[in-house]
């Protein structure tokens, strides 16, 4: 993995540690976010389809811009990083040493499995007793119930022992809860939550899906977990409010968050979610390392049973935990969670001696989708989702839908799609406009497009301010009788302004693309849904929108466009 900064050691020399020490990490100078759209003309010369040619940032001579009628100035695609933050470096057993070690450790593994099972059962039973009859979950757990949970916490340490963590090296100390009500940590394996449960017994923020995990769901409920659905804005907002409430009250345990939102291989620090930083409380970062030679303990893109088996069959697994100095938000950063998160991320990345990337949980979703569809190199479909979410406000679920569309274009082993397959999936007839649409995405002008280019281009068009107005006008052109439906004949009449020679099969293909509910007719909802899923297709209506004189209401919208 590429590492940009290797100047600081993995573990600095021992020194006296004061938990109240404040780490000051200076901000970079504020700068306005870059705008991918260049300055745009206020009018389109001659209002026809012969758009001007431009040069992109890489110096390539670009084809005519088929989206200039939407005031698009083109887009750029950031260079891809070579870092894969989810790849486990030892997914398979390889080498004579590992084979011999596993064979020798098999009897030990059986004993460890028994210890693991017994500890889990005892901890579960103790937790059930501690939770029995407790109804007031909005207030802190009573002290006597917390004392019962010490049984479960000791069981957690035995579980760590069964996984081969016989001793764990610690550096520094946790700050008092009154000083650091929020702690954040990098997330490499399922081991860290078990360790923090034993060491700190904090309140954690976890996915709602964890509640249904046998045994584990019951135990994390005793930690007064704050559940969140990462795909629900309402759930995320409620979780942030609950974090604020508990962090502000010293009778609650400290709040622990893994701001990366998923596990990585520990070779990079991916983008942070902002939940831990919005409240503006002092934060103590904690970093975890798993030094290894033959067995990578990270829970990256590897199955849980395989990872557990490998842990059970090691002589010893190494783990290092370092409590970093507090990070205090400045006055303006109490109102700016992004800046606070950036400071914390820089401090943690520096201590870990790793790079920071713009990957997020969305990239893991793309990786799993590509693997599910049996792509030869699923990792090439990661796009650093945090960056595109920031630029275009495209959600991870939307990105997965775009990937599904792209993979239906039969990309080659290198992840590139040729014009023929691109046009086939979008039901576009080979013509000058179709070539321009493909050329709009092909920013490197090498005759093929990658998923990153497809996603950035589609998101750019989808989020253009005039995109929705263009959709309204396009449907108004198709709906000639005003009944909020478009027939196949009406669609064909409009498209003949773009494609001079359309046969019946080609019209039917485009009609099927828009008829998303397959009821044989295209409703207004069908039309808009199709264009949200395939925003590049809006270009096929541009000749009609630019040449047709519309009604009085339509003229006003047309003026906004051209």
From TrEMBL:
Signal peptide: none annotated. InterPro entries: EF-hand-dom_pair, EF_Hand_1_Ca_BS, EF_hand_dom, LPCAT1-like, Plipid/glycerol_acylTrfase. This is EF-hand domain-containing protein. It is found in: Membrane. GO terms for cellular component: membrane. SMART domains: EFh, PlsC. One of its GO terms (molecular function) is O-acyltransferase activity. Pfam families: Acyltransferase, EF-hand_7. GO terms for biological process: phospholipid biosynthetic process. The lineage of its organism: Eukaryota, Viridiplantae, Streptophyta, Embryophyta, Tracheophyta. It comes from Gossypium tomentosum. Residues 502-537 form the EF-hand domain. Belongs to the 1-acyl-sn-glycerol-3-phosphate acyltransferase family. Pathway: Lipid metabolism; phospholipid metabolism.
